[in-house]
Design goal:
The complex is a heterodimer of chains A (377) and B (198). Chain A is built from 11 helices and 14 strands. With 377 residues, chain A is α/β, with parallel strands linked by helices. Chain B has one domain (3-114, 145-197): Rossmann fold (3-Layer(aba) Sandwich), CATH 3.40.50. The chains are: A alpha/beta (377), B alpha/beta (198).
């Protein structure tokens, strides 16, 4: 019995050739859906999740018992309205919420793969999720969307399947991972691998896990998801349940206590090896290079209508990197809109209740859907 | 919809590719989208206006016409519209060159600083003119490079830009501008509307 027995899974029978050269088949892609697929099958939205997300976009996550990670954006009457649209989200390849990943059992050894799992890429993730379209017999999605690593998957999806989506909304992302972002990911990986419990990735065999390392990785990453202003406003130099400094290395400051908490709750729901593999996939992402240094070529064959969204205080995937995608699309006369949302909440803005963002997303989707239906008549 | 927009819309051919530079809240774009061509997009600098455009289902790119036109290839639009903003740019000449690079034709409208009321205001009151089309004070005006219909006409002549159509809006009346009546139109018109090409 596994805790993932009762969640939806598609077992992909076909072979999937990975970028690393290996071929996989008979592997599970865990997914969840919200809303109803209509008879014309023209109302499906495929949502791609970010680094530490999963398929449980909305409602209560049945495994963690917490709210879905995109609860502000997806649900009844929300920007991505589940009364109108059929929302599909899958756990990425390499993930730890039921899809094929390093914690899956290797039938050859009877133990989990650990770091024998093949190194996967954003391209592999997208190709694995494409099987869901066949599964639901959806010829063309109404929209593909996602933030951060989810946005990268959106770009890759349109490049791989130029006719498979009417619209694409990449949010707070990039077409190639910057040195700063690779560096930050490496910091997280080294924290995990420096934990004695990591045991070269074979920790599950000894029933241990590199919680300390993973927690430090999460703490560091969490800072990058926020902004200086947001941190200053929320925590400043406020002390944690004490009147004065204790002259020790306890969590004197609220920010320390907050980050420690974030780290400790993260290890309960996330697998350290998955963290290594997924951050690697992000680092390897370079759509520009894949198309000979010309990002426009990635989208040349597509008629997909793009809407790109970035946030003013996002320094991890800054507006300038999002605008590079807009520029690449404009230079081939593609259909593209762009908005930079004013928010001081940093990269995390796309996950939070940022009304300008949610309004823009909802309006874009609803108006585009209306227009497609008008055309249809 | 204001008269100026109706005149602009009349200058646009059906089903052509259009870019509205500084599209504001998308009023003109909506009209064109519903009546003339569905191949229209805008660039707009104000976040509030960008949101309004999105809520109307318009394609809009948040950006600055002065910096962001470079990304469009040569002749990627049949018509590029610039309504009453040329005078607000740091470098209007560069913007005009860019308009005529990305568009086969451009429609440019300018508030006329040569109108008699403006002239009288400066002559008799001795203060910077404030009128319906130029409602700002000297210290808060976004208009850095005011010009007259005559100025714009001479400017385009010097740059070998062709006038396909030159119209003057005076109150609600639309009149043709020609070489012979240029001084008169420059004296009595609120707005100049020019369809130009390089």
């Amino acid at each position: 019995m596994s805790k993932f027995d009762n969640i939806k899974k598609l077992i992909v029978k076909e072979q999937l050739k990975l970028d690393c050269g290996q071929t996989i088949s008979d592997f599970p892609i865990a997914y969840e859906t919200y809303g109803k697929l209509n008879s014309k099958k023209d109302n499906a939205i495929l949502v791609f999740h970010a680094l530490t997300g999963d398929q449980f976009v909305s409602n209560i996550n049945p495994i963690t018992k917490k709210d879905g990670w995109w609860k502000y954006a997806v649900g009844s009457g929300k920007a991505i309205d589940t009364n109108k649209y059929f929302v599909i989200c899958a756990n990425v390849l390499g993930g730890c919420m039921g899809s094929f990943g390093p914690s899956s059992l290797n039938p050859k050894t009877g133990k989990s793969y650990g770091n024998d799992f093949p190194v996967i890429t954003i391209n592999d993730m997208v190709n694995a999720q494409y099987f869901l379209l066949k599964h639901f017999e959806i010829e063309k999605l109404f929209c593909v969307t996602g933030g951060s690593m989810g946005g990268m998957q959106v770009l890759q999806f349109v490049a791989n399947y130029p006719d498979a989506a009417q619209t694409a909304v990449p949010i707070a992302c990039t077409s190639n991972h910057s040195a700063q972002n690779i560096g930050l990911n490496e910091l997280g990986r080294q924290a995990i691998m420096a934990d004695a419990n990591w045991k070269n990735g074979k920790y599950e065999e000894t029933n241990s896990s590199p919680d300390k390392g993973l927690s430090v990785a999460r703490m560091a990453a969490h800072i990058t998801y926020l902004s200086k202003n947001a941190l200053q406003e929320k925590f400043g130099r406020k002390l944690q349940e004490r009147d004065d400094l204790k002259f020790s290395f306890d969590a004197d400051f609220q920010i320390e206590s907050y980050l420690r908490h974030q780290g400790s709750v993260f290890v309960d729901r996330f697998d350290a090896n998955s963290y290594l593999y997924i951050t690697r996939a992000m680092d390897y992402f370079d759509l520009n290079k894949k198309f000979g240094g010309n990002l426009s070529k990635a989208f040349e064959k597509s008629k997909t209508k793009f809407f790109i969204i970035s946030f003013t205080s996002d320094w991890l995937y800054p507006s300038s990197e999002n605008k590079e995608i807009v520029i690449a699309l404009n230079s081939i006369g593609a259909d593209v809109g762009y908005v930079e949302i004013d928010s001081d909440k940093g990269h995390d803005s796309f996950l939070l209740n940022v009304s300008d963002f949610l309004q823009a997303l909802g309006n874009f989707l609803n108006k585009s859907y209306e227009r497609l239906n008008e055309k249809g008549i | 919809m204001k008269k100026e927009f109706r005149i602009i819309a009349d200058l646009i051919e059906k089903n052509s590719r259009i870019l509205d530079v500084g599209c504001g809240d998308g009023e003109l774009m909506s009209f064109i989208l519903n009546n003339i061509s569905n191949n229209i997009r805008g660039i707009e600098i104000s976040k509030t206006n960008v949101q309004k455009c999105i809520s109307k289902g318009l394609i809009v790119i948040e950006g600055d016409a002065e910096k962001d036109l470079f990304q469009f290839p040569d002749s990627s639009f049949d018509f590029v519209i610039l309504s009453q903003t040329l005078q607000a740019f740091l470098n209007p000449e560069k913007v005009l060159d860019e308009l005529l690079r990305v568009g086969k034709k451009a429609i440019v409208t300018i508030p006329n600083f040569g109108h008699w009321r403006v002239r009288l205001n400066l002559l008799f009151k001795g203060t910077m003119p404030i009128t319906e089309t130029l409602p700002h004070k000297w210290y808060n005006t976004p208009n850095l490079h005011m010009c007259t219909i005559k100025d714009f006409s001479n400017f385009c002549d010097n740059k070998n830009i062709n006038f396909i159509k030159s119209l003057a809006l005076s109150k609600e009346r639309v009149l043709n501008i020609s070489k012979n009546n240029l001084s008169t139109r420059n004296f009595f018109s609120d707005l100049g509307i020019f369809l130009i090409e390089k």
